[in-house]
Amino acid sequence: MMTRSLFNTLTIFFFTLVSISAFAQDQTESIHQEIQNRTEQIFDSLVKIRRDFHMYPEVGGDEKRTSTKIAEYLTKLGLEVKTGIGGYGVVGILEGAKPGKKIAWRADIDAMPYKATDVVDFASKHEGVRHICGHDVHTAVALGIANVLEKQKESLEGTIYFVFQPSEENIKGALAMIDDGLFDMIQPEEMYAMHVTPFPAGTIAVKPEEMFSDYKRVDIHFNKNNNSDALFDFTKQAVLSLENISPESKFWNMQNMGDPEIGIASPKSIYKNFTKVDKNNFSIKKTEDGIKISGYVSFSDKKQRDAAIPSLKKIIADSKFAEDFSAAELVNVFPTLDNNERLVNESLDQLSGIYGKERVLRMYGVVADGRSDDFAFFQPKVPSVYFFMGASNYEKGIIAQTHSPNFAVDESCIKTGVNLFSSLIVERLDQ
């Protein structure tokens, strides 16, 4: 039988735990409110910074001015700053008041060669170069996160690394930073990044594993064959047979990726479980051992990708060219993004609890236009997540369709990025 003294002791202990838990929750909620307040205070300055980067864009390998501006900003905040990593890469290090978890945030900083006229009042002053992929926004958001979290450093336990990566568009920057010792300088336990998309401003979206259906090259090798035209036609048809999308499907209108019913953020998405073939990109080449025939195929997921080569081998084995067949392989053209499932699920729960499920979207399909992001090169090194951030305002005719001549962003997305991703880092440090 429990004595009254023991009962009283346990009661006091229980209510003490409840009080500590409530206090901790209040503290967390207070931090997120302070994040939003600080973001509001610096928003106009971040827009100014973004427009400056937009007016003076620099292509991969030439980001000298951009890098200098980033380093100056981080230095003024009081962060430890390292420059010249993998070219014009910059790393800012923010130490919390106490030791703890280590988290990295990556932003790409380069622009693109592009001749079409800019569509904004603060147009590019560098002829033939434009920020039409939103990296000027990415950089401004990352600087904003650094500013906001620096103000909270006395409440933070752990270390935050801000990685500003050059040369993303030419798929060189991530590997260059790694080769230059990035992960000797920093030791993150988790790593995060984002990219603007045509989703509505105010939202972010993510899913586990693949985010893009990047193209892979399929190389099929044959021993010497005199009838190369027939072999080429057969092999082309074999690769084309991998495609499992009806020609009449709404899939082919890429604008449908944003459709609320069938787009990539819908549970009924038509942008999943697919294999797509680039019908206009086949080649044949003579080799020392025979002939190599190549085509390009993109996949929505690992299951589709893993099935491709066995399917091709079976088709060839059942054909008159079976004896001439040597090998078949998939070759990476772009790196494949592969988000960590646990981190995705935890991030979605944490952010939707703070900012609402209507702003924090779970994706079900993948971007189906064959692109990728070299953030994927960091992912084997560190458990990581790559987000999409909405930057469009359809009522104003602002569509953040990257790599398009009319690319523009609703700059309110900068506020969204700083708020949500600052809160995410705070939550992850506390995890």
UniProtKB/TrEMBL annotation:
Mn(2+) binds at residues 133, 135, 169, 195, 403. InterPro entries: Amidohydrolase, Peptidase_M20. Keywords: Hydrolase, Manganese, Metal-binding, Signal. Pfam families: Peptidase_M20. Residues 1-24 form the signal peptide. GO terms for molecular function: hydrolase activity; metal ion binding. Its cofactor is Mn(2+). The Mn(2+) ion enhances activity. This is Amidohydrolase. It comes from Flagellimonas oceani.
